[in-house]
What we know:
By secondary structure, the protein is α/β, with parallel strands linked by helices. The protein has a single domain, classed as Rossmann fold (3-Layer(aba) Sandwich). 46% of the residues lie in helices and 22% in strands. It has five helices and five strands. A five-stranded parallel sheet has the order 2-1-3-4-5, sandwiched between helices.
Amino acid sequence: MIVAEVIVLEKQARWAPELSRQFQNENVAVRACRDFASLRERVDAARKNQKSCVAVLNLAGWPGECLPVISQLHRQQICVAVVGHPGVEILEPSLRELGVTTLFLPPIAGHEIGDACRRLLGQHSLQSHGPGSR
Length: 134
């Protein structure tokens, strides 16, 4: 039974297949998206089905367009991890201010993203199901 989702937004398949390998023996589904509308649909579906989720956004090719999406995800209390590219470190303060929880800068290993997603899903689960929650 799938209990959580890692939703990956990237223009070309790179991290979604790697994260699928990272989570192959766990109750976590990795969902790939190629556009913002698909990302929103997948996040909404995960929330509707009461699944914890983490959004992983690969900024390559559209860093500016991701900023409002990051802000929206943060308002929905979705943990956001961003995969950067050389030069994106200049945006780090803005990304953090918008709600990015984790920022990966090159060189990046797939297990690092997988481990961070596990931590974020664990934190989300504790926040959603901790003492005093319904």
